[in-house]
Write a structure and sequence with these properties.
This protein is mainly alpha-helical. It has 22 helices and two strands. A hairpin with a 5-residue loop joins strand 1 and strand 2. It is globular, with a radius of gyration of 22 Å.
């Protein structure tokens, strides 16, 4: 799988033509050049950037008084920073590139950063699965996740979005808990607290995933730690707060408020959730564009006892998570390949699917049918990634008729535009025509 992800990385080469730091990524990334290159958290420097650096505009919001601010929280900036620093040092010695945070070296650095996070995620996921399953089943599960879903798209093709970074943190949280349950110590709880804090800082809806320790961690062993370490609870609390301190200072400096809702008029419409559309609709339906994960449905019913805590976590939190994320005004989450907002739950999904396949170990015919199905899903996923990159699979306007018209086809029908259904962003933001 390492080779496959690297192959996609160079095959699609998102960093070329400055196409890595674009769209939402500019809002996550913008803190770095603003703070460390231009010393301008008001983002006035955006007016003087070259037309193609970044390729799209540097996105920011504006307060009534004219103060500019980033809508996205700065959690991802922590992860981007190592390769950002390397790129900035490189441009010091190679002066043909602009040292503005958006020229080619920075674009490549961010794309490479995402690839490295994806490869690390693969390794952590392998370690988790090997705790429960043998090497063959682990390999199959990794192939399903990293080749037959939309996950590889956000690792190698469209870098920088929050989802693979959240995926990494979920893997880290699970692995730390498993190690803690085997051999408890305070340092593991502190690192766990940092990971939990970071995952919420990256994306607030990840709060549901921050509940994983509640279901998996051994309470008796946590109690022992608190008894043995007088200031243990204080250190854990400090670890939770630490990643948020720069964010709180930034909000206070920009808005004069310690806590600030940065999304303005954007909101959730809890009385009109689009759960069916989000899961099975052709615009962005999770199971439509990652059908390999349909096996999760029987996996929730038939599983093994030692995975009970994961199953309980999923059954309790996932329906609420789905309800919340698909109540957002832009429930399809803009231009994306499939339902990208579901990627955060993939580690849990993979563990549960593994438990289901473990129960099928003696049913060779059924396993053979499933493997054939997943082989098709891998082919379909690769085909559709290329369709999406070429604009054949539309980024936000797909319908059943348009999907049917381009299914496994490299050509657009003459009436393709008539088959699309473009969302009215202005109306949907007001809760109309969703």
């Amino acid at each position: 799988m390492f080779g496959y992800l690297v192959l996609l990385f160079f095959q699609f080469a998102s960093w070329k033509n400055n196409r890595a730091i674009i769209h939402d990524v500019t809002s996550y990334y913008g803190y770095l050049p603003a703070a460390f290159i231009f010393d301008d958290l008001n983002f006035r420097f955006a007016e003087n950037l070259p037309a193609d650096e970044p390729k799209d505009l540097l996105w920011f919001s504006t307060l009534p008084g004219g103060q500019r601010f980033q809508k996205m929280t700065l959690g991802l900036a922590y992860f981007y920073s190592p390769t950002f620093v390397v790129a900035h040092i490189y441009t010091y010695f190679d002066r043909k590139w602009n040292r503005n945070g958006f020229s080619f070296p920075y674009q490549f650095a961010l794309a490479l950063n995402t690839l490295l996070v994806g490869l690390l995620s693969l390794q952590l996921m392998r370690k988790i699965l090997n705790i429960y399953f043998n090497d063959k089943l682990t390999a199959l599960l990794l192939i399903i996740c990293f080749a037959a879903t939309n996950l590889p798209y956000y690792i190698s093709v469209s870098p920088g979005t929050s989802h693979i970074y959240s995926f990494l943190l979920v893997c880290a949280i699970i692995l730390i808990i498993l190690r803690f349950n085997e051999q408890p110590n305070l340092s593991k709880l502190i690192i766990l607290s940092l990971c939990v804090s970071l995952i919420v800082l990256i994306r607030p809806t990840n709060l549901f995933l921050a509940l994983i320790p509640v279901f998996i961690c051994s309470y008796s062993k946590i109690t022992v730690i608190f008894r043995n370490y007088k200031f243990g609870a204080f250190l854990i609390l400090a670890a939770c707060i630490l990643p948020w301190i720069p964010q709180l200072i930034y909000w206070k400096q920009v808005t004069d408020q310690w806590i600030f809702y940065t999304y303005g008029n954007e909101q959730f419409y809890f009385s009109d959730p689009k759960v069916w559309e989000g899961l099975f609709g052709f615009r962005k339906g999770w199971f439509v564009y990652s059908p390999a994960l349909l096996i999760l449905i029987p996996a929730l019913v038939f599983n093994i006892e030692k995975l009970r805590s994961y199953r309980l976590f999923f059954i309790i939190t996932f329906p609420v998570f789905v309800y919340v994320v698909f109540s957002w005004w832009c429930w399809w989450y803009g231009g994306s390949f499939g339902s990208r907002t579901m990627i955060e739950y993939y580690p849990i999904c993979l563990i549960l699917i593994g438990g289901f396949l473990y129960r099928l170990s003696n049913k060779r015919i059924l396993k053979g049918v499933l493997i054939l199905f997943w082989c098709f899903c891998i082919y379909l996923n690769n085909y559709q990634m290329r369709q999406y990159q070429r604009g054949i699979l539309h980024w936000d306007s797909m319908t059943y008729l348009s999907y049917k018209a381009i299914f496994l086809s490299n050509r657009l029908p003459s009436n393709y535009k008539e088959l699309l259904e473009s969302p009215d962003y202005k109306k949907t933001m007001q809760g109309k025509g969703r």
